[in-house]
From TrEMBL:
Belongs to the class I-like SAM-binding methyltransferase superfamily. RsmB/NOP family. This is 16S rRNA (Cytosine967-C5)-methyltransferase. GO terms for molecular function: RNA binding; RNA methyltransferase activity. GO terms for biological process: regulation of DNA-templated transcription; RNA methylation. The keyword Methyltransferase applies. The keyword Methyltransferase applies. Gene3D superfamilies: NusB-like (1.10.940.10), Vaccinia Virus protein VP39 (3.40.50.150). It holds the Pfam family Methyltr_RsmB-F. The active site is at C414. Keywords: Methyltransferase, RNA-binding, S-adenosyl-L-methionine, Transferase.
Amino acid sequence: MTPGRQGKPDRSRRPAPRKQGPRKPPAQDPARRVALDVLRAVSERDAYANLMLPEELRRRRITGRDAALATELTYGTLRAQGLLDEIITACLDRPLSEVDKVVLDALRLGAYQLLRTRIPPHAAVASTVDLVREETGSHVAGFANAVLRNVSEKDEADWMRQLTPDAETDPIGNLAMRTSHPRWVARSFAEALGDKGAELEAALLADDTRPAVHLLAKPGEITADELAAITGGDPAPYSPYGVHLPTGGGDLAEAEPIKEKLAVVQDEGSQLVTIAATNVPVDGGSGGDTRWLDLCAGPGGKATLLGSLAATAGVTVDAVEKAPHRAKLVERATEGLPVTVHVADGRDPGLDGGYDRVLVDAPCSGLGALRRRPEARWRRQPSDVADLTRLQGELLASAFGLVRAGGLVAYVVCSPHLAETEGVFGNAARRAGAEVIDAREYFPGVPLLGDGPYVQLWPHRHGTDAMFVALAIAR
Ligand SMILES: C[S@@+](CC[C@H](N)C(=O)[O-])C[C@H]1O[C@@H](n2cnc3c(N)ncnc32)[C@H](O)[C@@H]1O
């Protein structure tokens, strides 16, 4: 390949049009083939890698080492995308946006192998070039070969030194690059943590870890100790209903307690915020504490715990969900529990007010669950937050309208972004004249909860998703 301007690969021609029709996966490299197909689906059709990859592995009967390699390459490449794109850009003589999408996905896959795996460089380059050749033809394969050879001239540490902003003058930019996060996400974490150093780094690095599987032992059905004994897991450190499963603990769908609906998969953070919402004492009210409302219930995780607790306490729960298919999931999840599902907009659900407790588990950016969705950090945009905070505010205003005086509004989001957390809730509670209470009291035994009155959980501190909860008593 003749180097182009500035000694960089020449890519003056657009790739030839790709052949139509399904391609046959090359039998000799199923792991990289499926990885590239998933990367393409993510970038071209907004697919979710954590849903698509397991399905494709099953469909193509890829197992064992090939499945492990495909998983590592797909998730690793998606998480590191920002960093890989900077490095690839440094090896091009034109903007990244001018590179054909499938070629770019293949280059990311190749660069990831070169920089973050022990795959020998010649194998990383040759296998990527083969994929590009199959997709586009020989002339573009030469281009891919040249770019990847440039990438391979330095290791990750050298590339970091060249591309990363100075830690002294731009600590957030430095950590955003080193942990491969968009700068705005790193900044939002820094603001929530009040830290731009070691703790911010730990929080960002936690997004690259695989979360342990947590189970909820449904109250009234099975205890956490029993569930732990049956599944080989450990009782959770904080939730009295939680069990942590060992990593690689077999096929969950086959576990008896799950088949029998005695237990469900649920992050311990979700359990803790729901338990907190049911433990705050609510005074007054003619009926005591008998009517609860879950205003954003789909797919029904927290409604299941609320319903199980309600069943043992003589309480009824109304569960509102706007999306009909998600409302069906709530119905299925809460079957047999005292939960009535309503397909309605939580901003005006058409229900009689006077609830003793209202949970608003609002739609949010999901920045608190980035470790579950490898591509999410790059897909979310700062503008999403503005739209979401408007909706969150409207849902909270509705909640304060539906709760009785002396009743509780619990606001939950799976995000640490201050606009979605303290910002929205502070305004809504002030407008409603509600009394914000210190939520930390309702997280007994949970360490590192900060100064209150809100609670922000974190993967790197608590091993949970970064759930936020705020509690207020209506006046
Ligand atoms: C964060 S999820 C709730 C998760 C749920 N509480 C659980 O634990 O499984 C937010 C839900 O709110 C729903 N939603 C979005 N806008 C809504 C609205 N205006 N009214 C009611 N539900 C809405 C979404 O469809 C989504 O299912």
